[in-house]
């Protein structure tokens, strides 16, 4: 068994479990606590509602749903999930039944209180509306009495233009015109429906009514929906029983409520006093009911998280068991799943523990199956490596046992970030933030976090390494908040005799600054020109080395997957093509750096020509093969060497294009010949022997994946695309690494501008103005540094480093066509639900 490392994914085994039905639940419980087995669905054609344990899952769902709604409605928060509750064991079937009975008792009590509360609330609503009706109608009756004469004239004037359209209609049949006895209807209706109510009445009764309304200024709560409603009190005067009946029907159809009140003012006053008294009593009863119900819900809320944790674990168990199959006698459950090979003894121990704790005499059986199925990819990570592995997994899950770039990302990702973000001061601020997250990780993990902070917390170790590498590159650039530090003896000296405004040139002391950029360059007129050239060449070197390393990782994949010929047919032409062009460019850069181009002879003349442009050298290497202008020549024999390198690059193109497809064609033809020959030589005894060895796996062999048919034309098309893509990407990806230069330059310039515009300007003032200005300037500088240079620039550098790893690095070797190992785990079930 190989040792577990991050270099490759874990070795996986397909295991088959035979679990007796009586110990199925405790066995799956033990496996859920371990989180080491990913179960396969053995019933892919069975509908989700027709699985074996659907009824149990529905029962558990009902146990959750009611209390969640009640607590949410009452705005009561449940207790946070504690570590002890999180890791509490799953319960037995008897304990689940007891829990269900306990929850049902609580549910019955809550339902009884809800029903009582709803009845009391409805009665309270009716009394509140009646109270407003009694108050407002007293005013309406007074207005009606004062306008009684005008109302009578309205109905008596049959011969005027205001008479009803039909003089002898049904409502007028019993009206003799000698006297008028007005009826009235009082009630409450929704404010939104009042205009509709008025229009319908006017059209239905043809204007034979007198109506008045007033808004209720007190909020009315619906007892069913708990919504606050706006309502109006109305009173309608009309004559005739038929009209009064019609008004009531229209009101009720529009959701209005009719209240009968007496005509006598004294009786209305007595009724108002009585209603007010009943409302006060009812309010006290409602308050007590609410307190009792809330106390009950608070009592439930204290234990509800623990109860629901148990319920969710049980649901996860039954969901997992729905993936299993019954044997022919339905006395045993058969499960299949993937498990890390080195974890099989742990799983077997868990099966024995489940059997012993259940007191059963029949134990579960684990069998390791041989299969051609594609296993899942499982990288065993810890809290430090988890974030870096997530960066790779976001691009694509590695193929099973493929070289995992996540191991190298631990170093390359923070380093490339730091190349773009290099500043010792900014790195120190980031380090403080990272150390806060790392040193308080246990405390912060227990707290509830928002989405943004949780992302920072998840990547705390990524931020830690990025800040450490930023300190290093910042020291290399000699950049601390856009300022420089003189820690060692400088290699230059400024002349002492010069006039103001005169351009002076530093004098070389023939020594080199011990580490990083010489501080003499800081503030020089040609500092940008120097750092620009240095960082651009540095980006090319880092990029080519990074991509070369990625190409070399193909060797490990080819050898592991048994394709050693691919090392000669794919890796070798790729690395030769890459190094013959861009590897040569790196050598030119290093050679140019190592030569003193301004060295003088004894006569004071320059020994060498001025340093040539490497970009022009690379261009003319292809435009004029084999020829180098003597003025631009770096070393003797440069022309023939470049011609030889171009020939190697040209030869590598058909090598990559044709070698692999024709090799695969020859291997496929040989495989077909061996298969046919082997089938003819198989004897009957050998067949029996094979049947004896594979009978246990016979049902499983049917599901094994078939080998893909080889098609030479498709392979040629695929290899042509791959060859063209590789050759073009060698150029474009190398240029893409220039982002290291561009972002580093932009970060340094932004830091310089921020320093000069917010803080440096106050150094020229004195007195109180200087003090106030420095305080204000420092505050502004610090806020903008954190917001722009750490926040925005940090995010920009992070995204660019991410792109370099996904496209330029992973694109050279990473297949990324696997699928993730997702074991059955209670921890995962509790975090997702």
Descriptive account of the structure:
By secondary structure, the protein is an alpha+beta fold. Helix content is 60%, strand content 7%. The chain has 25 helices and 13 strands. The chain has helices at residues 24-34, 54-73, 83-86, 93-146, 148-156, 194-205, 241-253, 265-321, 344-358, 386-395, 406-421, 424-439, 441-446, 451-458, 460-477, 527-560, 565-594, 614-623, 638-681, 684-694, 698-701, 712-736, 739-758, 767-809, 826-832; strands at 12-20, 37-39, 183-190, 210-215, 220-221, 228-229, 231-238, 257-259, 325-326, 332-340, 365-369, 492-493, 507-508. Strands 1, 2, 9, 10 and 11 form a five-stranded antiparallel β-sheet that branches. Strands 4-7-3-8 form a four-stranded antiparallel β-sheet, sandwiched between helices. Strands 5-6 form a two-stranded antiparallel sheet. The longest helix is centred in the middle third of the chain and has 57 residues, at 265-321. The two termini are 36 Å apart. Residues 158-180 and 679-702 have low confidence and may be disordered. One of its GO terms (cellular component) is vacuolar proton-transporting V-type ATPase, V0 domain. Keywords: Coiled coil, Hydrogen ion transport, Ion transport, Membrane, Transmembrane, Transmembrane helix, Transport.
């Amino acid at each position: 068994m190989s040792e577990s490392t991050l270099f490759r994914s874990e070795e996986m085994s397909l295991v088959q479990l035979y679990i007796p039905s009586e110990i199925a639940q405790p066995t799956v419980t033990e496996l859920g606590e371990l989180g080491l087995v990913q179960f396969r669905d053995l019933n892919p054609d069975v509908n989700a509602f027709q699985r074996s344990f659907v009824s149990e899952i529905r029962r558990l769902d009902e146990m959750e749903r009611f209390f969640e709604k009640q607590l949410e409605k009452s705005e009561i928060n449940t207790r946070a999930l504690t570590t002890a509750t999180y890791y509490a064991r799953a319960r037995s079937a008897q304990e689940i039944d007891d829990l269900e009975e306990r929850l049902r008792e609580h549910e019955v009590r809550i339902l009884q209180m809800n029903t009582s509360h709803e009845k009391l609330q409805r009665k309270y609503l009716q009394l509140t509306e009646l109270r407003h009706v009694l108050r407002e109608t007293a005013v309406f009756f007074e207005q009606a009495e004062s306008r009684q004469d005008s109302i009578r004239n309205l109905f008596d004037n049959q011969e005027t233009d205001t008479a009803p359209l039909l003089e002898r209609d049904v409502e007028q049949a019993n009206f003799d015109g000698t006297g008028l006895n007005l009826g009235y209807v009082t009630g409450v209706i929704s404010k939104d429906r009042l205009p509709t109510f008025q229009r319908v009445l006017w059209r239905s009764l043809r204007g034979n009514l007198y109506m008045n309304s007033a808004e209720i200024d007190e909020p009315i709560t619906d007892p069913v929906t708990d919504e606050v409603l706006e309502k109006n009190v109305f009173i309608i005067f009309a004559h005739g029983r038929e009209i009064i009946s019609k008004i009531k029907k229209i009101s009720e159809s529009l959701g209005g409520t009719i209240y009968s009140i007496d005509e006598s003012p004294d009786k209305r006053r007595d009724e108002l006093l009585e209603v007010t008294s009943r409302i006060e009593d009812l309010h006290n009863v409602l308050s007590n009911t609410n307190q009792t119900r809330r106390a009950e819900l608070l009592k439930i809320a204290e234990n509800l998280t623990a109860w629901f944790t148990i319920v969710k674990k049980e649901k996860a168990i039954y969901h997992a068991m729905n993936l299993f199959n019954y044997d022919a006698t339905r006395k045993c459950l058969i499960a299949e799943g993937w498990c890390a090979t080195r974890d099989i003894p742990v799983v077997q121990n868990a099966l024995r523990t489940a059997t012993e704790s259940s007191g059963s005499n029949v134990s579960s059986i684990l069998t390791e199956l041989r299969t051609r199925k594609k296993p899942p990819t499982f990288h065993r990570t810890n809290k430090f490596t988890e974030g870096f592995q997530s960066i790779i997994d976001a691009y694509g899950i590695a193929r099973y046992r493929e070289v995992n770039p996540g191991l190298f990302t631990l170093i390359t990702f923070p380093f490339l970030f730091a190349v773009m973000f290099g500043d010792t001061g900014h790195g120190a601020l980031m380090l403080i933030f990272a150390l806060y997250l790392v040193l308080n990780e246990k405390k912060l993990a227990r707290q509830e976090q928002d989405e943004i902070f949780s992302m920072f917390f998840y990547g705390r170790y990524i931020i830690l390494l990025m800040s450490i590498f930023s300190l290093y590159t910042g020291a290399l650039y000699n950049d601390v908040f856009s300022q420089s530090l003189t820690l060692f003896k400088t290699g230059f000296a400024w002349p002492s005799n010069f006039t103001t405004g005169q351009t002076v040139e530093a004098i070389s002391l023939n020594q080199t600054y011990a580490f990083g950029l010489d501080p003499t360059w800081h503030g020089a007129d040609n500092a940008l020109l120097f750092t620009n050239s240095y960082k651009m060449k540095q980006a090319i070197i880092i990029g080519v080395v990074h991509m070369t390393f990625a190409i070399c990782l193909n060797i490990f994949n080819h050898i592991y997957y048994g394709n050693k010929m691919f090392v000669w047919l794919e890796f070798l032409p790729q690395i030769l093509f890459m190094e013959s062009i861009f590897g040569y460019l790196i050598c030119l850069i290093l050679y140019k750096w190592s030569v003193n181009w301004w060295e003088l002879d004894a006569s004071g003349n320059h020994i060498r020509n001025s340093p040539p442009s490497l970009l022009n050298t690379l261009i003319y290497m292809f435009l004029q093969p084999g020829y180098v202008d003597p003025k631009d020549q770096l070393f003797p024999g440069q022309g023939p060497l470049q011609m030889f390198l171009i020939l190697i690059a040209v030869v590598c193109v058909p090598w990559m294009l044709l070698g692999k497809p024709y090799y695969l064609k020859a291997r496929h033809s040989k495989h077909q010949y061996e298969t046919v020959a082997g089938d003819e030589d198989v004897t009957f005894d050998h067949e029996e022997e094979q049947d004896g060895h594979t009978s246990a796996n016979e049902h499983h062999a049917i599901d094994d994946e078939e080998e893909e048919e080889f098609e030479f034309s498709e392979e040629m098309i695929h290899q042509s695309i791959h060859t063209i893509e590789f050759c073009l990407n060698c150029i474009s990806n190398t240029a893409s690494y220039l982002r290291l230069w561009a972002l580093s330059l932009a970060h340094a310039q932004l830091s310089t501008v921020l320093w000069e515009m917010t803080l440096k300007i106050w150094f020229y003032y004195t007195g109180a103005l200087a003090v106030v200005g420095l305080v204000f300037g420092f505050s502004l500088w610090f806020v903008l540094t954190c917001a722009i240079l750490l926040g925005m620039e940090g995010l920009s550098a992070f995204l660019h480093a991410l792109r370099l790893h996904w496209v330029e690095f992973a694109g050279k070797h990473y297949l990324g066509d696997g699928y993730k190992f997702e074991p059955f785990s209670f921890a995962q079930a509790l975090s997702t639900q």
